[in-house]
Amino acid sequence: MTAGGTAAPAGRLKSILGGSAGNLVEWFDWYVYSAFGLYFAPHFFPKGDPTAQLLSTAAVFAVGFVMRPIGAWIMGIYADRHGRKAGLTLSVTLMCAGAFLIAICPGYASIGWAAPALLVFARLMQGLSVGGEYGASAVYLSEMAGRNRRGFFSSFQYVTLIAGQLLALFTLLLLQAALSEAQIEQWGWRLPFALGGLLAIVVFRIRRGLMETQAFENARDQPKSSGWLLFSQHPRQALTVVLLTAGGTLAFYAYTTYMQKFLVNTSGFSRESATWIMTLALALYAALQPLAGALSDRIGRKPLMIGFGVAGLVATVPIFTLLETMKSPVLAWALVMAALVIVTGYTAINAVVKAELFPAHIRALGVALPYALANTAFGGTAEYAALWLKQAHMERAFYWYVTAMIGVSLVTYWRMRDTRAHSQIAED
């Protein structure tokens, strides 16, 4: 360790790569559910209207988010009291169990309503895992990074988050090429969940060998992390995290996980075309994150967040409206890419912004719990809200809903201090 409280360059890079690899697998396991929802929805829910089946699948996706604040609370405290490394190891264990349960779960035709019940239980475990993963990994990467490259290194949380989603889509493309649609619907959809469980076992071993952050070591004699301590001593910072997350997380899920279904269910593209559009767009999107993170190290975090807020406010409705009748895959990709470039101003730096708001002894909980509350309320319900409004023949109301929440976050970005210049991490 250096005197400044961070690891020496070689050890820091190894720890960041190790933490990032684990984050990738965690999010692969999480997003496989969304990527394969079009195929396994009939397996768990009675046959009927495709939109109704997708609505049921999206509802279970949203249910997983219900556990995220609980996971953030429990494992945020755990990571503050026992170490970031311990929190990361526990989260991947829960994700592994949930992935294997979905992989082996019988269908509705075999066990009736016990099938969707087991699916919900598995997603609850995974929601608990991801609730703790976000805070622990955001704090770990931010604390491991050097003062002048914190935005760059912490951006790898979303690089690996997006890469997990991308890997899920790539897995879907491979299965679409190797198997027929009937085979994927019958049994092929189970393969990525089994793969995710196996990869999680590998990550468990990697995370057990990670280096602990010096910031955590320096805070061992500070007050013990708790929900009461967070909201009684840091209420303004906690509220700031909720408000800055609301628009960003809703836009992220609207532009990524829901967009694939939108391209099929509204625009009329085939499943394969929609998968290719999203795969190519997400690949470039992931590459943008470190560039934006590095830019924030030079000009500050606030200009990027304001840029997202203004552009999202202006462009969200036009992008979705144009995509409704778009028939060209190339132009559809360009519109999706425009949306992802816009949201990069939030995703590349939101982790470090939140980490920089809190002192070390409460940091994992401070990042995780308010974020999880906002993420559950707005990100986790994005697909369900969009599909419900479509079923009610008010699909465009969803575009305005996303726009309005981006506006709420924009006001927060405008009023808050730039955390690069006022970082609590720098004071450890």
Q: Can I get a quick summary?
A:
This protein has 428 residues and is mainly alpha-helical.
Mean pLDDT: 88
- The N- and C-terminal alpha carbons lie at a distance of 14 Å
Instruction: Work out the radius of gyration.
Output: 20 Å
| Low confidence ranges | 1-6
How many H/I helices? 21
* Strand runs, count: 0
What profile does the largest beta sheet have? none
Task: Tell me what portion of residues adopts beta-strand conformation.
Answer: under 5%
**Would you tell me the structural class of the helices and strands?**
mainly alpha
Global shape = globular
Q: If you had to describe this structure to a student in words, what would you say it looks like?
A:
Mean pLDDT is 88; it is low at 1-6. Helix content is 81%, strand content 0%. The chain starts with 8 loop residues before the first helix and ends in a 13-residue tail after the last helix. The protein has 428 residues and is mainly α. The protein is globular and about 60 Å long. The longest helix is centred in the N-terminal third of the chain and has 33 residues, at 50-82.
